[in-house]
Protein backbone atom coordinates (compact mmCIF):
# COMPACT_ATOMS: atom_id res chain seq x y z
CA UNK A 1 0.00 0.00 0.00
CA UNK A 2 2.91 2.35 0.67
CA UNK A 3 4.00 2.07 -2.98
CA UNK A 4 0.67 3.37 -4.28
CA UNK A 5 0.65 7.13 -4.67
CA UNK A 6 -2.16 9.39 -5.76
CA UNK A 7 -3.00 13.05 -6.02
CA UNK A 8 -6.35 14.80 -5.48
CA UNK A 9 -6.95 18.03 -7.32
CA UNK A 10 -8.80 20.99 -5.81
CA UNK A 11 -11.61 20.62 -8.35
CA UNK A 12 -12.18 17.04 -7.23
CA UNK A 13 -12.32 18.10 -3.58
CA UNK A 14 -14.83 20.85 -4.40
CA UNK A 15 -16.88 18.41 -6.43
CA UNK A 16 -16.83 15.92 -3.57
CA UNK A 17 -18.04 18.61 -1.14
CA UNK A 18 -20.80 19.60 -3.54
CA UNK A 19 -21.99 16.03 -3.85
CA UNK A 20 -22.05 15.50 -0.09
CA UNK A 21 -23.87 18.79 0.52
CA UNK A 22 -26.51 17.58 -1.91
CA UNK A 23 -26.92 14.42 0.17
CA UNK A 24 -25.47 12.22 -2.58
CA UNK A 25 -23.03 9.61 -1.38
CA UNK A 26 -20.88 7.49 -3.68
CA UNK A 27 -17.25 6.85 -4.45
CA UNK A 28 -15.33 9.20 -6.74
CA UNK A 29 -12.56 7.70 -8.90
CA UNK A 30 -9.52 9.58 -7.71
CA UNK A 31 -6.79 10.21 -10.26
CA UNK A 32 -3.67 8.17 -9.54
CA UNK A 33 -0.53 10.25 -9.94
CA UNK A 34 2.86 10.86 -8.39
CA UNK A 35 2.39 12.70 -5.10
CA UNK A 36 1.46 11.82 -1.57
CA UNK A 37 1.19 8.26 -0.39
CA UNK A 38 -2.14 6.51 -0.09
CA UNK A 39 -1.86 6.65 3.71
CA UNK A 40 -1.55 10.45 3.57
CA UNK A 41 -4.52 10.62 1.25
CA UNK A 42 -6.54 8.45 3.65
CA UNK A 43 -5.66 10.77 6.54
CA UNK A 44 -6.65 13.80 4.50
CA UNK A 45 -9.90 12.12 3.49
CA UNK A 46 -10.81 11.39 7.12
CA UNK A 47 -9.90 14.94 8.17
CA UNK A 48 -11.99 16.40 5.35
CA UNK A 49 -14.90 14.16 6.29
CA UNK A 50 -14.84 15.00 9.99
CA UNK A 51 -14.52 18.73 9.36
CA UNK A 52 -17.16 19.22 6.68
CA UNK A 53 -19.55 16.29 6.72
CA UNK A 54 -20.57 15.85 10.33
CA UNK A 55 -24.08 14.79 9.41
CA UNK A 56 -22.71 11.68 7.69
CA UNK A 57 -20.67 10.43 10.65
CA UNK A 58 -23.45 8.12 11.82
CA UNK A 59 -23.98 6.83 8.28
CA UNK A 60 -20.29 6.01 7.92
CA UNK A 61 -20.21 4.37 11.35
CA UNK A 62 -23.24 2.19 10.64
CA UNK A 63 -21.89 1.37 7.19
CA UNK A 64 -18.59 0.25 8.70
CA UNK A 65 -20.44 -1.98 11.16
CA UNK A 66 -22.46 -3.44 8.29
CA UNK A 67 -19.33 -4.22 6.30
CA UNK A 68 -17.71 -5.78 9.35
CA UNK A 69 -20.70 -8.04 9.92
CA UNK A 70 -20.74 -8.96 6.24
CA UNK A 71 -17.06 -9.87 6.25
CA UNK A 72 -17.47 -11.80 9.49
CA UNK A 73 -19.85 -14.15 7.73
CA UNK A 74 -23.44 -15.15 8.45
CA UNK A 75 -24.23 -16.00 12.01
CA UNK A 76 -26.89 -18.55 11.08
CA UNK A 77 -26.37 -20.81 8.11
CA UNK A 78 -29.06 -21.54 5.56
CA UNK A 79 -29.55 -25.06 6.87
CA UNK A 80 -29.90 -23.81 10.44
CA UNK A 81 -32.41 -21.16 9.34
CA UNK A 82 -34.41 -23.79 7.48
CA UNK A 83 -34.36 -26.02 10.53
CA UNK A 84 -35.51 -23.16 12.73
CA UNK A 85 -38.38 -22.35 10.39
CA UNK A 86 -39.35 -26.00 10.27
CA UNK A 87 -39.45 -26.28 14.06
CA UNK A 88 -42.20 -23.66 14.29
CA UNK A 89 -45.58 -25.32 14.71
CA UNK A 90 -47.94 -23.32 12.52
CA UNK A 91 -51.64 -23.52 13.44
CA UNK A 92 -54.04 -25.53 11.31
CA UNK A 93 -57.28 -24.21 9.85
CA UNK A 94 -59.24 -26.16 12.45
CA UNK A 95 -57.29 -24.52 15.29
CA UNK A 96 -57.80 -21.10 13.73
CA UNK A 97 -61.54 -21.73 13.45
CA UNK A 98 -61.76 -22.84 17.10
CA UNK A 99 -59.98 -19.66 18.26
CA UNK A 100 -62.08 -17.34 16.09
CA UNK A 101 -65.32 -18.91 17.29
CA UNK A 102 -64.16 -18.96 20.96
CA UNK A 103 -65.03 -22.63 21.38
CA UNK A 104 -62.52 -23.35 24.15
CA UNK A 105 -63.31 -22.03 27.62
CA UNK A 106 -59.81 -20.85 28.53
CA UNK A 107 -59.38 -19.10 25.18
CA UNK A 108 -62.73 -17.40 25.61
CA UNK A 109 -61.82 -16.09 29.07
CA UNK A 110 -58.39 -14.85 28.00
CA UNK A 111 -59.55 -13.11 24.81
CA UNK A 112 -62.54 -11.42 26.44
CA UNK A 113 -60.49 -10.35 29.46
CA UNK A 114 -57.63 -9.00 27.34
CA UNK A 115 -60.02 -7.13 25.06
CA UNK A 116 -61.80 -5.51 28.00
CA UNK A 117 -58.47 -4.54 29.54
CA UNK A 118 -57.37 -2.94 26.26
CA UNK A 119 -60.69 -1.09 26.06
CA UNK A 120 -60.34 0.34 29.57
CA UNK A 121 -56.69 1.27 29.08
CA UNK A 122 -57.41 2.94 25.74
CA UNK A 123 -60.26 5.05 27.14
CA UNK A 124 -58.50 6.45 30.20
CA UNK A 125 -55.14 6.52 28.42
CA UNK A 126 -56.48 9.19 26.06
CA UNK A 127 -56.91 11.71 28.85
CA UNK A 128 -53.60 10.65 30.38
CA UNK A 129 -51.87 11.38 27.07
CA UNK A 130 -53.61 14.73 26.59
CA UNK A 131 -52.77 15.65 30.19
CA UNK A 132 -49.11 15.20 29.16
CA UNK A 133 -48.61 12.48 31.74
CA UNK A 134 -47.87 9.56 29.48
CA UNK A 135 -44.66 8.64 31.29
CA UNK A 136 -46.43 8.89 34.64
CA UNK A 137 -48.14 5.62 33.81
CA UNK A 138 -44.71 3.99 33.47
CA UNK A 139 -43.61 5.25 36.88
CA UNK A 140 -46.97 4.28 38.35
CA UNK A 141 -46.80 0.71 37.02
CA UNK A 142 -43.25 0.22 38.32
CA UNK A 143 -44.31 1.58 41.70
CA UNK A 144 -46.73 -1.32 42.10
CA UNK A 145 -43.95 -3.89 42.48
CA UNK A 146 -42.97 -3.05 46.09
CA UNK A 147 -46.66 -3.02 47.00
CA UNK A 148 -47.11 -6.53 45.63
CA UNK A 149 -44.00 -7.85 47.39
CA UNK A 150 -44.81 -6.16 50.70
CA UNK A 151 -48.42 -7.38 50.60
CA UNK A 152 -47.17 -10.93 49.98
CA UNK A 153 -44.74 -10.71 52.92
CA UNK A 154 -47.37 -9.33 55.32
CA UNK A 155 -50.05 -11.82 54.30
CA UNK A 156 -47.56 -14.67 54.65
CA UNK A 157 -46.58 -13.54 58.16
CA UNK A 158 -50.09 -12.90 59.50
CA UNK A 159 -52.37 -15.08 57.36
CA UNK A 160 -50.08 -17.92 56.40
CA UNK A 161 -50.85 -17.52 52.68
CA UNK A 162 -49.55 -14.56 50.71
CA UNK A 163 -51.23 -15.25 47.38
CA UNK A 164 -54.66 -13.72 47.96
CA UNK A 165 -55.29 -11.78 44.74
CA UNK A 166 -57.28 -8.98 46.37
CA UNK A 167 -54.52 -8.42 48.91
CA UNK A 168 -51.85 -8.25 46.21
CA UNK A 169 -53.96 -5.86 44.14
CA UNK A 170 -54.61 -3.73 47.22
CA UNK A 171 -50.89 -3.45 47.94
CA UNK A 172 -50.22 -2.55 44.30
CA UNK A 173 -52.92 0.14 44.39
CA UNK A 174 -51.57 1.71 47.60
CA UNK A 175 -48.04 1.97 46.26
CA UNK A 176 -49.31 3.27 42.91
CA UNK A 177 -50.96 6.15 44.75
CA UNK A 178 -47.77 6.69 46.76
CA UNK A 179 -45.73 6.74 43.54
CA UNK A 180 -48.06 9.31 41.96
CA UNK A 181 -47.96 11.44 45.10
CA UNK A 182 -44.16 11.21 45.16
CA UNK A 183 -43.93 12.57 41.62
CA UNK A 184 -46.28 15.44 42.41
CA UNK A 185 -44.43 16.34 45.63
CA UNK A 186 -41.03 16.31 43.89
CA UNK A 187 -42.34 18.52 41.07
CA UNK A 188 -43.98 21.08 43.36
CA UNK A 189 -41.44 21.35 46.17
CA UNK A 190 -38.14 21.14 44.31
CA UNK A 191 -36.47 22.48 41.21
CA UNK A 192 -36.33 19.05 39.63
CA UNK A 193 -38.12 18.85 36.30
CA UNK A 194 -40.90 16.44 35.41
CA UNK A 195 -38.81 13.90 33.52
CA UNK A 196 -36.22 13.73 36.30
CA UNK A 197 -38.93 13.29 38.94
CA UNK A 198 -40.46 10.43 36.96
CA UNK A 199 -37.06 8.78 36.58
CA UNK A 200 -36.33 9.06 40.29
CA UNK A 201 -39.68 7.61 41.37
CA UNK A 202 -39.56 4.83 38.78
CA UNK A 203 -36.05 3.66 39.66
CA UNK A 204 -36.43 3.98 43.44
CA UNK A 205 -39.75 2.15 43.67
CA UNK A 206 -38.71 -0.52 41.20
CA UNK A 207 -35.44 -1.08 43.05
CA UNK A 208 -37.34 -1.33 46.32
CA UNK A 209 -39.69 -3.84 44.72
CA UNK A 210 -36.83 -6.02 43.49
CA UNK A 211 -35.29 -5.98 46.97
CA UNK A 212 -38.59 -6.95 48.60
CA UNK A 213 -39.07 -9.67 45.99
CA UNK A 214 -35.72 -11.09 47.04
CA UNK A 215 -36.88 -11.17 50.66
CA UNK A 216 -40.17 -12.80 49.68
CA UNK A 217 -38.45 -15.63 47.83
CA UNK A 218 -36.24 -16.38 50.86
CA UNK A 219 -39.13 -16.68 53.31
CA UNK A 220 -39.38 -20.23 54.65
CA UNK A 221 -43.07 -20.05 55.44
CA UNK A 222 -44.16 -18.60 52.10
CA UNK A 223 -44.18 -19.74 48.51
CA UNK A 224 -43.32 -16.79 46.27
CA UNK A 225 -43.55 -18.76 43.04
CA UNK A 226 -45.73 -16.94 40.54
CA UNK A 227 -45.07 -13.40 41.75
CA UNK A 228 -42.90 -12.80 38.70
CA UNK A 229 -46.08 -12.92 36.60
CA UNK A 230 -46.84 -9.42 37.87
CA UNK A 231 -43.62 -8.22 36.25
CA UNK A 232 -43.84 -9.94 32.87
CA UNK A 233 -47.51 -10.88 32.78
CA UNK A 234 -49.19 -14.25 32.43
CA UNK A 235 -52.28 -13.77 30.34
CA UNK A 236 -52.73 -17.45 29.53
CA UNK A 237 -53.41 -18.23 33.21
CA UNK A 238 -56.24 -15.70 33.48
CA UNK A 239 -59.19 -17.05 35.45
CA UNK A 240 -62.89 -16.30 35.23
CA UNK A 241 -62.67 -14.10 38.32
CA UNK A 242 -59.87 -12.09 36.70
CA UNK A 243 -61.93 -11.54 33.56
CA UNK A 244 -64.94 -10.44 35.63
CA UNK A 245 -62.74 -8.03 37.59
CA UNK A 246 -61.30 -6.58 34.38
CA UNK A 247 -64.80 -6.30 32.91
CA UNK A 248 -66.03 -4.40 35.96
CA UNK A 249 -63.05 -2.05 35.72
CA UNK A 250 -63.68 -1.50 32.00
CA UNK A 251 -67.35 -0.73 32.66
CA UNK A 252 -66.49 1.71 35.45
CA UNK A 253 -63.85 3.36 33.29
CA UNK A 254 -66.22 3.70 30.32
CA UNK A 255 -69.02 5.16 32.46
CA UNK A 256 -66.62 7.60 34.11
CA UNK A 257 -65.29 8.79 30.76
CA UNK A 258 -68.85 9.33 29.51
CA UNK A 259 -70.15 11.08 32.63
CA UNK A 260 -67.07 13.25 33.19
CA UNK A 261 -66.09 13.76 29.56
CA UNK A 262 -66.56 17.53 29.62
CA UNK A 263 -64.65 17.94 32.89
CA UNK A 264 -61.77 15.68 31.82
CA UNK A 265 -61.49 17.48 28.48
CA UNK A 266 -61.41 20.87 30.19
CA UNK A 267 -58.62 20.06 32.63
CA UNK A 268 -56.63 18.34 29.87
CA UNK A 269 -56.59 21.36 27.58
CA UNK A 270 -56.77 24.32 29.97
CA UNK A 271 -56.62 23.49 33.67
CA UNK A 272 -55.93 27.13 34.60
CA UNK A 273 -59.16 28.28 32.95
CA UNK A 274 -61.07 25.47 34.68
CA UNK A 275 -59.63 26.57 38.02
CA UNK A 276 -60.65 30.21 37.46
CA UNK A 277 -64.18 29.07 36.59
CA UNK A 278 -64.50 27.30 39.94
CA UNK A 279 -64.05 23.70 38.79
CA UNK A 280 -62.45 21.37 41.37
CA UNK A 281 -59.38 20.68 39.25
CA UNK A 282 -57.52 18.91 42.04
CA UNK A 283 -60.32 16.46 42.76
CA UNK A 284 -61.00 15.83 39.08
CA UNK A 285 -57.31 15.20 38.49
CA UNK A 286 -57.20 12.83 41.47
CA UNK A 287 -60.25 10.96 40.18
CA UNK A 288 -58.65 10.62 36.75
CA UNK A 289 -55.46 9.26 38.26
CA UNK A 290 -57.54 6.87 40.40
CA UNK A 291 -58.96 5.39 37.21
CA UNK A 292 -55.43 5.04 35.84
CA UNK A 293 -54.34 3.30 39.04
CA UNK A 294 -57.33 0.96 38.85
CA UNK A 295 -56.59 -0.06 35.27
CA UNK A 296 -52.91 -0.46 36.11
CA UNK A 297 -53.28 -2.77 39.09
CA UNK A 298 -55.96 -4.88 37.41
CA UNK A 299 -53.91 -5.32 34.25
CA UNK A 300 -50.73 -6.34 36.04
CA UNK A 301 -51.41 -10.06 35.84
CA UNK A 302 -52.42 -9.85 32.18
CA UNK A 303 -49.50 -8.04 30.54
CA UNK A 304 -47.24 -7.23 33.49
CA UNK A 305 -46.10 -3.92 34.90
CA UNK A 306 -43.37 -3.49 32.27
CA UNK A 307 -45.67 -3.83 29.26
CA UNK A 308 -48.83 -2.34 30.76
CA UNK A 309 -47.72 1.19 29.96
CA UNK A 310 -47.97 0.30 26.26
CA UNK A 311 -51.73 -0.27 26.53
CA UNK A 312 -52.15 3.13 28.19
CA UNK A 313 -50.10 5.08 25.62
CA UNK A 314 -50.07 3.30 22.25
CA UNK A 315 -53.86 3.14 21.50
CA UNK A 316 -54.50 6.88 22.14
CA UNK A 317 -51.33 7.76 20.26
CA UNK A 318 -52.56 5.76 17.29
CA UNK A 319 -56.03 7.33 17.51
CA UNK A 320 -54.56 10.83 17.17
CA UNK A 321 -53.55 10.05 13.59
CA UNK A 322 -57.17 9.46 12.55
CA UNK A 323 -59.20 12.35 13.94
CA UNK A 324 -59.10 15.86 15.38
CA UNK A 325 -62.28 15.35 17.40
CA UNK A 326 -61.79 14.40 21.05
CA UNK A 327 -64.89 12.21 21.28
CA UNK A 328 -63.86 10.26 18.21
CA UNK A 329 -60.33 9.99 19.56
CA UNK A 330 -61.53 8.49 22.85
CA UNK A 331 -63.73 6.00 21.00
CA UNK A 332 -60.99 5.01 18.55
CA UNK A 333 -58.50 4.64 21.38
CA UNK A 334 -60.81 2.22 23.16
CA UNK A 335 -61.38 0.27 19.94
CA UNK A 336 -57.64 0.07 19.22
CA UNK A 337 -56.95 -1.10 22.77
CA UNK A 338 -59.64 -3.79 22.58
CA UNK A 339 -58.40 -4.86 19.14
CA UNK A 340 -54.85 -5.14 20.47
CA UNK A 341 -56.00 -7.42 23.28
CA UNK A 342 -58.15 -9.48 20.91
CA UNK A 343 -55.48 -9.98 18.24
CA UNK A 344 -52.60 -10.45 20.68
CA UNK A 345 -54.32 -13.02 22.86
CA UNK A 346 -55.71 -14.78 19.77
CA UNK A 347 -52.26 -15.14 18.21
CA UNK A 348 -50.88 -16.34 21.54
CA UNK A 349 -53.61 -18.98 21.69
CA UNK A 350 -52.65 -20.19 18.21
CA UNK A 351 -48.87 -20.11 18.81
CA UNK A 352 -48.26 -21.82 22.13
CA UNK A 353 -44.69 -20.55 22.53
CA UNK A 354 -45.57 -16.86 22.21
CA UNK A 355 -46.33 -14.99 25.48
CA UNK A 356 -49.66 -13.21 25.27
CA UNK A 357 -48.55 -9.99 26.99
CA UNK A 358 -45.73 -9.34 24.55
CA UNK A 359 -47.89 -10.22 21.54
CA UNK A 360 -50.62 -7.84 22.76
CA UNK A 361 -48.09 -5.02 22.86
CA UNK A 362 -46.78 -5.98 19.41
CA UNK A 363 -50.34 -5.93 18.06
CA UNK A 364 -50.83 -2.45 19.52
CA UNK A 365 -47.53 -1.36 17.98
CA UNK A 366 -48.65 -2.66 14.58
CA UNK A 367 -51.83 -0.60 14.84
CA UNK A 368 -49.73 2.43 15.74
CA UNK A 369 -47.38 1.97 12.78
CA UNK A 370 -50.33 1.54 10.41
CA UNK A 371 -51.95 4.68 11.83
CA UNK A 372 -48.67 6.57 11.59
CA UNK A 373 -48.49 5.84 7.88
CA UNK A 374 -52.14 5.85 6.77
CA UNK A 375 -53.95 8.02 9.35
CA UNK A 376 -56.52 10.31 7.73
CA UNK A 377 -55.80 13.25 10.05
CA UNK A 378 -52.07 13.21 10.84
CA UNK A 379 -50.72 10.23 8.90
CA UNK A 380 -47.39 10.60 7.16
CA UNK A 381 -48.84 9.85 3.73
CA UNK A 382 -51.60 12.43 4.17
CA UNK A 383 -49.17 15.03 5.47
CA UNK A 384 -46.85 14.34 2.55
CA UNK A 385 -49.69 14.76 0.06
CA UNK A 386 -50.84 17.96 1.75
CA UNK A 387 -47.35 19.44 1.73
CA UNK A 388 -46.92 18.53 -1.92
CA UNK A 389 -50.26 20.20 -2.71
CA UNK A 390 -49.22 23.32 -0.79
CA UNK A 391 -45.92 23.47 -2.66
CA UNK A 392 -47.74 23.18 -5.99
CA UNK A 393 -50.17 25.92 -4.94
CA UNK A 394 -47.34 28.25 -3.91
CA UNK A 395 -45.49 27.71 -7.19
CA UNK A 396 -48.66 28.27 -9.21
CA UNK A 397 -49.56 31.48 -7.38
CA UNK A 398 -46.00 32.78 -7.63
CA UNK A 399 -46.01 32.22 -11.39
CA UNK A 400 -49.35 33.99 -11.75
CA UNK A 401 -48.20 37.01 -9.72
CA UNK A 402 -44.82 37.26 -11.42
CA UNK A 403 -46.42 37.12 -14.85
CA UNK A 404 -49.08 39.67 -13.90
CA UNK A 405 -46.53 42.14 -12.53
CA UNK A 406 -44.38 41.60 -15.63
CA UNK A 407 -47.28 42.89 -17.74
CA UNK A 408 -48.03 45.62 -15.19
CA UNK A 409 -44.51 47.04 -15.40
CA UNK A 410 -44.59 47.24 -19.18
CA UNK A 411 -48.09 48.68 -19.44
CA UNK A 412 -47.60 51.37 -16.79
CA UNK A 413 -50.37 53.93 -16.37
CA UNK A 414 -53.16 51.77 -17.80
CA UNK A 415 -56.19 50.78 -15.74
CA UNK A 416 -55.79 47.12 -14.72
CA UNK A 417 -59.30 46.42 -15.98
CA UNK A 418 -58.25 47.53 -19.48
CA UNK A 419 -54.89 45.78 -19.56
CA UNK A 420 -54.35 43.13 -22.22
CA UNK A 421 -52.50 39.97 -21.31
CA UNK A 422 -52.24 38.37 -24.74
CA UNK A 423 -49.43 35.80 -25.02
CA UNK A 424 -48.01 37.63 -28.08
CA UNK A 425 -46.92 40.41 -25.72
CA UNK A 426 -45.90 38.17 -22.85
CA UNK A 427 -42.53 36.92 -21.61
CA UNK A 428 -40.73 33.85 -22.87
CA UNK A 429 -39.71 30.87 -20.78
CA UNK A 430 -36.22 32.24 -20.15
CA UNK A 431 -37.63 35.53 -18.80
CA UNK A 432 -39.91 33.68 -16.38
CA UNK A 433 -37.03 31.49 -15.28
CA UNK A 434 -34.96 34.54 -14.30
CA UNK A 435 -37.69 35.98 -12.05
CA UNK A 436 -37.17 33.45 -9.25
CA UNK A 437 -34.89 30.60 -8.31
CA UNK A 438 -36.95 28.01 -10.14
CA UNK A 439 -35.35 25.04 -11.80
CA UNK A 440 -36.12 24.75 -15.53
CA UNK A 441 -37.79 21.38 -15.06
CA UNK A 442 -40.02 22.60 -12.21
CA UNK A 443 -41.05 25.76 -14.07
CA UNK A 444 -41.77 23.87 -17.27
CA UNK A 445 -43.93 21.32 -15.44
CA UNK A 446 -45.81 24.05 -13.54
CA UNK A 447 -46.50 26.03 -16.72
CA UNK A 448 -47.89 22.90 -18.35
CA UNK A 449 -50.26 22.36 -15.43
CA UNK A 450 -51.43 25.98 -15.54
CA UNK A 451 -52.13 25.58 -19.25
CA UNK A 452 -54.16 22.42 -18.62
CA UNK A 453 -56.09 24.27 -15.91
CA UNK A 454 -57.05 26.95 -18.45
CA UNK A 455 -55.19 29.77 -16.71
CA UNK A 456 -52.34 30.37 -19.18
CA UNK A 457 -52.08 30.53 -22.94
CA UNK A 458 -48.91 30.27 -24.99
CA UNK A 459 -47.88 31.15 -28.53
CA UNK A 460 -46.42 28.11 -30.22
CA UNK A 461 -44.13 30.05 -32.55
CA UNK A 462 -42.55 32.47 -30.06
CA UNK A 463 -43.04 30.44 -26.90
CA UNK A 464 -44.37 33.44 -24.94
CA UNK A 465 -47.01 33.24 -22.21
CA UNK A 466 -50.14 35.22 -21.36
CA UNK A 467 -53.35 34.93 -19.36
CA UNK A 468 -56.72 33.55 -20.26
CA UNK A 469 -59.79 35.25 -18.81
CA UNK A 470 -59.85 32.84 -15.87
CA UNK A 471 -56.10 33.17 -15.44
CA UNK A 472 -56.30 36.96 -15.29
CA UNK A 473 -58.90 36.79 -12.50
CA UNK A 474 -56.85 34.23 -10.55
CA UNK A 475 -53.70 36.36 -10.91
CA UNK A 476 -55.55 39.48 -9.75
CA UNK A 477 -56.74 37.63 -6.64
CA UNK A 478 -53.16 36.61 -5.79
CA UNK A 479 -51.78 40.11 -6.40
CA UNK A 480 -54.59 41.65 -4.34
CA UNK A 481 -53.82 39.42 -1.33
CA UNK A 482 -50.14 40.24 -1.65
CA UNK A 483 -50.70 43.99 -1.69
CA UNK A 484 -53.31 43.94 1.06
CA UNK A 485 -50.76 42.33 3.36
CA UNK A 486 -48.11 44.83 2.26
CA UNK A 487 -50.48 47.69 3.16
CA UNK A 488 -51.20 46.07 6.52
CA UNK A 489 -47.48 45.75 7.33
CA UNK A 490 -46.85 49.39 6.46
CA UNK A 491 -49.87 50.66 8.40
CA UNK A 492 -49.70 48.53 11.54
CA UNK A 493 -46.16 47.13 11.72
CA UNK A 494 -44.41 50.34 10.57
CA UNK A 495 -42.32 48.55 7.95
CA UNK A 496 -40.79 50.55 5.12
CA UNK A 497 -42.33 50.08 1.64
CA UNK A 498 -39.11 48.65 0.25
CA UNK A 499 -39.03 45.87 2.87
CA UNK A 500 -42.59 44.56 2.86
CA UNK A 501 -42.39 42.51 -0.32
CA UNK A 502 -40.54 39.50 1.09
CA UNK A 503 -42.77 39.26 4.17
CA UNK A 504 -45.93 39.39 2.07
CA UNK A 505 -44.52 36.82 -0.34
CA UNK A 506 -44.84 34.09 2.32
CA UNK A 507 -48.17 35.13 3.86
CA UNK A 508 -50.21 35.64 0.69
CA UNK A 509 -50.58 31.89 0.15
CA UNK A 510 -52.35 31.26 3.47
CA UNK A 511 -54.79 34.19 3.52
CA UNK A 512 -58.35 32.90 3.35
CA UNK A 513 -61.56 34.81 2.62
CA UNK A 514 -62.25 35.68 6.27
CA UNK A 515 -58.75 37.05 6.79
CA UNK A 516 -59.01 39.15 3.62
CA UNK A 517 -62.29 40.65 4.85
CA UNK A 518 -60.62 41.50 8.16
CA UNK A 519 -57.76 43.21 6.33
CA UNK A 520 -60.20 45.24 4.26
CA UNK A 521 -61.97 46.43 7.41
CA UNK A 522 -58.66 47.40 9.01
CA UNK A 523 -57.39 49.24 5.91
CA UNK A 524 -59.72 52.14 4.93
CA UNK A 525 -60.34 52.45 1.23
CA UNK A 526 -59.06 49.00 0.26
CA UNK A 527 -62.55 47.51 -0.09
CA UNK A 528 -63.39 49.89 -2.97
CA UNK A 529 -60.22 49.06 -4.90
CA UNK A 530 -60.25 45.96 -7.03
CA UNK A 531 -56.46 45.94 -7.23
CA UNK A 532 -54.46 48.27 -4.95
CA UNK A 533 -51.27 49.72 -6.47
CA UNK A 534 -47.94 48.31 -5.42
CA UNK A 535 -46.36 50.34 -2.58
CA UNK A 536 -42.91 49.93 -4.13
CA UNK A 537 -41.49 50.19 -7.63
CA UNK A 538 -41.88 46.91 -9.43
CA UNK A 539 -38.96 47.73 -11.72
CA UNK A 540 -36.65 47.97 -8.71
CA UNK A 541 -37.98 44.64 -7.54
CA UNK A 542 -37.01 42.97 -10.80
CA UNK A 543 -33.46 44.35 -10.77
Task: Characterise the protein shown here.
This protein is an all-alpha fold. It is 70% helix and 2% strand. Helix 16 packs across helix 17.
Annotation keywords:
mainly alpha, elongated, 24 helices, Arc Repressor Mutant, subunit A, 2% strand, single chain, 3 domains, two-stranded antiparallel ribbon, 543 residues, 4 strands, ABC transporter involved in vitamin B12 uptake, BtuC, 70% helix
Summarize it.
By secondary structure, the chain is mainly α. The protein is built from 24 helices and four strands.
Task: Please describe the topology of this protein.
Blueprint: E1 5-6, H1 10-21, E2 36-37, H2 38-52, H3 57-72, H4 78-87, H5 93-100, H6 105-130, H7 134-158, H8 165-188, H9 194-217, H10 229-232, H11 240-259, H12 261-269, H13 271-276, H14 281-298, H15 300-319, H16 326-350, H17 356-374, H18 380-410, H19 429-435, H20 440-452, E3 456-458, E4 465-467, H21 469-492, H22 500-507, H23 513-522, H24 538-542
Antiparallel strand pairs: 1-2, 3-4
Helix pairs in contact: 6-11, 6-14, 6-15, 6-16, 7-8, 7-9, 7-14, 7-15, 8-9, 8-14, 11-14, 15-16, 15-17, 16-17, 18-20, 18-21, 21-22, 21-23
Q: From the alpha-carbon coordinates, what is the Rg to the nearest angstrom?
A: 34 Å
Look at the structure and give the mean pLDDT.
77
Q: In CATH's first tier, which class of the largest domain applies?
A: Mainly Alpha
Strand fraction band? under 5%
How many helical stretches? 24
Order of strands across the main sheet: 1-2
Structural class: mainly alpha
In the CATH hierarchy, what is the architecture of the largest domain at level 2?
A: Orthogonal Bundle
Give the CATH topology of the largest domain.
ABC transporter involved in vitamin B12 uptake, BtuC
Total domains, how many? Answer: 3
Percent in helix: 55-70%
What is the rounded distance between the termini? 57 Å
**SSE run:** EHEHHHHHHHHHHHHHHHHHHHEEHHHH
Strand count, sense and closure of the main sheet? 2 strands, antiparallel
The CATH superfamily of the largest domain appears as ABC transporter involved in vitamin B12 uptake, BtuC
Amino acid sequence: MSNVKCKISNDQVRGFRHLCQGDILFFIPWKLDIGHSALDILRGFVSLWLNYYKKWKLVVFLGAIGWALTLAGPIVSVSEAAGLAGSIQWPTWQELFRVLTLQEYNTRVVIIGSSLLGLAAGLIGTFLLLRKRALLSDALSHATLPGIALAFILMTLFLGDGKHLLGLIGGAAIFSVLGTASVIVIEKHSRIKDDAALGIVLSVYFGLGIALMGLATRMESGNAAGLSSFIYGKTASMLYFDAVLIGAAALACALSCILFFKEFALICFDSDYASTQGWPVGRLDFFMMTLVVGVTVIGLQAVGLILLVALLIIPPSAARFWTFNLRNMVGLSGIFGALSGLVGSGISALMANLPAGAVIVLAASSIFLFSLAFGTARGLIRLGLERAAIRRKIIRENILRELYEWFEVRIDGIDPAKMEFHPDKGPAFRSLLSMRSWSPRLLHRSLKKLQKAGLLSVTVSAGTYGFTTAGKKAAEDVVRKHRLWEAYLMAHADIAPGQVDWGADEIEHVLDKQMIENLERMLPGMRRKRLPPSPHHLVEKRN
